[in-house]
Amino acid sequence: MELRQLEYFVAVAEDCHFTRAAKRLHVAQSGLSASIRALERELGAPLFLRSTRQVELTPAGRALLVEARRALSATDAARDAVAAVQGLLRGSLAIGSLQCLHVVHLPAVLSRFVAAHPGLEISMRQGGSGELIEQVRSGRLDLAFVSRPARCPDDIVVETLAGEPLVLACPPGHPLAGREQVEPGELVAEKFVDFPPDWGTRDLVDDVLAAAGVERRVTLEVTDVHSLLDLVTFGLGVALVPRYFSTKTDRVRFIDLAGDVPSWETAAVTGTPTSAAAAALLREIHADPPAT
């Protein structure tokens, strides 16, 4: 089994098409197809279900995809390690991030990082924490900035960057708007606006309210902070959000939660081993003052 075969296999699996994968890799389709067939013969199992329109992974193909991505990621990490010893950073760095990342001013950090390492190709995507963590585990991302998970998988490295208390966000005319503090259990009759499951603060808020005996109704789900705060502004629900959301609007009342409520933590997640480029970016972040 050759690394080139794994690279071809992963490309076909991601594109679900031999022709598109060949174009992306700048290779002849016949050569790519022959390489996949050779890999299937070596493994003794078909990896794809082929049709005239697209291809789909077989159960054997799905099992191989996870390990193939890890193998290619480990190979990249090995190359990066050698380059780092030589005082160079080159290759690629794939980053994932929550949509609203308060603790790190990522555009400013990346601007300096790219200027210092012009040979490094950087890509970035946004998503929910669970999705981004899984992409780090599978080798599709080198580094992700996420909500710290309650349970951390063994095959990733999780580093907490900062913690932020949760507060209640409600419209100014809400009955609780004049309070200094509110108990989570008092929210039992409220309608909620929140992010989808596994996105932003959603999982932590679910846990906090469940611990207070609140079976809440999430009537509206959004994937961006400003939409959430706009819905709260117009009285369509309340939300539990990190305190720094209060810097984004003056049309919402933000009230502290009483009691021992867990903080929302932003964390950096890397694979094992951590690539040299990801480690270098984290060092740059630690040298950068927190975003305000």
Structure description:
With 292 residues, this protein is an alpha/beta fold. The protein has 3 domains: 1-70, Winged helix-like DNA-binding domain superfamily/Winged helix DNA-binding domain (Arc Repressor Mutant, subunit A), CATH 1.10.10; 89-161 and 265-292, Periplasmic binding protein-like II (D-Maltodextrin-Binding Protein, domain 2), CATH 3.40.190.10; 166-262, Periplasmic binding protein-like II (D-Maltodextrin-Binding Protein, domain 2), CATH 3.40.190.10. The chain is built from 9 helices and 13 strands. The strands form 4 sheets. The protein has a 5-stranded mixed beta sheet. The protein starts with a helix and ends in a 5-residue tail after the last helix. The mean pLDDT is 88.
Q: Any chance you could write out the topology, listing elements then pairs?
A:
Layout (H helix, E strand, L loop, with lengths): L2 H13 L2 H8 L3 H15 L4 E3 L4 E3 L1 H27 L5 E7 L8 H11 L3 E7 L2 H9 L5 E5 L8 E9 L1 E5 L10 E2 L8 E4 L7 H10 L5 E5 L3 H9 L5 E4 L10 E5 L6 E8 L4 H12 L5
Parallel strand pairs: 3-4, 3-5, 8-12, 9-10
Antiparallel strand pairs: 1-2, 5-13, 6-13, 7-11, 7-12
Helix pairs in contact: 1-2, 1-3, 1-4
